[in-house]
Structure formats: C-alpha cells, structure tokens
Amino acid sequence: MKLRMLSVTCALVLTLGACSDGEKKQAPDPKEPNKTTAAKITPINPLTGGQLKETPANPVFVVKVDNTPASAPQTNIDRADLVVEQTVEGGITRLAALYYTATPSTVGHVRSMRATDIGIAKPVNGQIVASGGAGKTISRIKDAGIPIHSQDAGSAGMSRDGGYAPYNVVVDLGELAKDVKNTQPERSYFQWAGAGAAAPKGPQVTSATVKFSRSHTTSWKFNSKAWKRTNGTSDKEFGARNLVVLWADEKSAGYTDPAGNPVPETTFQGGGKAVVFVGGTRVNAKWKKANNASTIVLTTRDGQPMKLPRGKTWIELLSKGESTALSAR
C-alpha cells in the first residue's frame, strides 16, 4: 500500500514537472524579449535619431556659447549632436550646443545661461554648462531640476584661454563628465523617421537667411550634403542635415543686462509656425511642444504628421513678436 502511494505521489510530481530530475523549463513567452534578444537592442541617440554603438558614459551637456565676433573662433561646435540658436539681449544671439556622443577637450567660448535654456535642456535631461548667470535665472533653472556647471561656481573642466574676459571661458567636457551624475535622456528631442523613410516633398533650395532681429541674421548654404553657416565664427562649421526654423512666444525675463538692455526669454513650449529644411527640400510646417520637457512634434501645414529624418539638426528659435524673417532660394 505504501509503495502504491509513493508511486502515485511521484507520478503527480512528474506531471507538475519535478520529481528527482528538477524543475521542467517552461517554453519562453514569444511576446517577451529573452536575454539574447535584449542584448541585441541598439540604443538610439535622442538628439539625432541615429543608432548608438553603446550608451554614452555622460549626460547631455548643454553648453552656452557666445555667437559674436568678440569671442571668435567658436571651438568644436561641429562635434555637437544638436544646436539651438536663441535670441538674447540687444537682438544678438547665443548658441546652446548639445553634446552627447562627443565630449571635446575644448568647447567655447562659454557664456552665461538664460531661462530659455530650461526648455532647451529638459527634453533630454540636459545639464547646463555656462560661465555664470543672473541670480533670477539660476534660481529658475535650479527650480526646474536642471544641474548647472559654471565657471563662476568653480565647476570641473572650466578654464580661461588667452583671450580677454568675458570672452575667454572654455570647458573640457571630458573632465567635466568625470565629476557629474550621469543622468540619461528619457525621450527624443524630435519624432524621428525610420531608416529608409520616404523623403519629404517640397521646393528645392540651396541657401537660406534667418533674420533674428535688426542686429543679427544667420546665413546658410546647402552643399548637397549638409547645411552650414556662411557667416558663422566657428573654426569648423556644424553640418546640419535638418535646419529647423521655429517661431515661439517671447516675454521679458524680468531683468536687464549690465548695459541696461532688457533680457528676453523665449518660451520653448506651446507651438507655432515652422519651416523645415531637410537636405535641399523646404517644408512649411507647424510645431507643438506640450511643456518644457516634451518632445517636439512637427506636422505639415495640412495637419499630417512629419517625422524628422535622422541626422544632426540645427534649430533657429525665433520670436513671434520680433521683426523676424526667413528667406530661401
């Protein structure tokens, strides 16, 4: 009787997949990626849409770079993944150069931060690199949860070269990366098109001029491969596959610069008119950005979704209220 009960017990255990040979392995769920599949997943660069060999060991650095002849030449702007040109006081412009896949030993010349940088940095958990900033601006950026690294605060990697102040601050991003928390992006800057996606349709152009104000116009030329500035001050110009012109709301930042000029703040959220140059093709579009941390969503003028082709992008962030203009041919 005992022998019969033991046989029945063992039979039941075998049915459940275990007796003396251990647990029976279950078949993998085809809906769940296994370890082999997960290992083959390629990370995507949120700033370009391109594939990464591996996730960088640094966060996205948003370096504020002077854009006037006084600080020329700009150094290693071409190695940024994405650049935003923004209006500052007096109608001149400043660059926010976003570095993720490269951390050059010299980037400059570094200038002060603005509240506009909140909407530039937030989509990719960017960390701002600047020479310094007004107290109101620093407080707002910190309240937005954005790390700040500055010359004024003695941050790692910051130094001065042989030029004259305040146009001589440079940063070694490799050194700075050793001293910061590696916060990674959580979303893409734009909605990126898949590999092999059809090219957008539109008129063909080879040059463009973007007027920010009476004080500054940026001129561009398409050389069959990339858009490059023709009046820039960089030692080697940034090559953009996508040149994106956006019109956004602007307001007062609430203070003036040392010369008494009111400091503007471009609100990099909401939406408005856009013109997108993809290669030599011009596309009239609209843009939306739900909040400072959101991905930029592009649509054509008739409301059709427009995903940006993968590649380096330069954003011209214009004010709706200023006497701005765009011409292309």
TrEMBL record:
PROSITE patterns the UniProt entry points to: PROKAR_LIPOPROTEIN (PS51257)
Region (Disordered): 21-53
Compositionally biased residues, Basic and acidic residues: 21-34
UniProt KW keywords: Signal
Domain DUF3048 per the UniProt entry, residue ranges: 47-183, 209-315
Alphabetical list of SUPFAM superfamilies matching this protein: YerB-like (SSF159774)
Signal sequence residues: 1-20
Residues in coiled coil: none
Keyword Cytoplasm: no
UniProt name for this protein: DUF3048 domain-containing protein
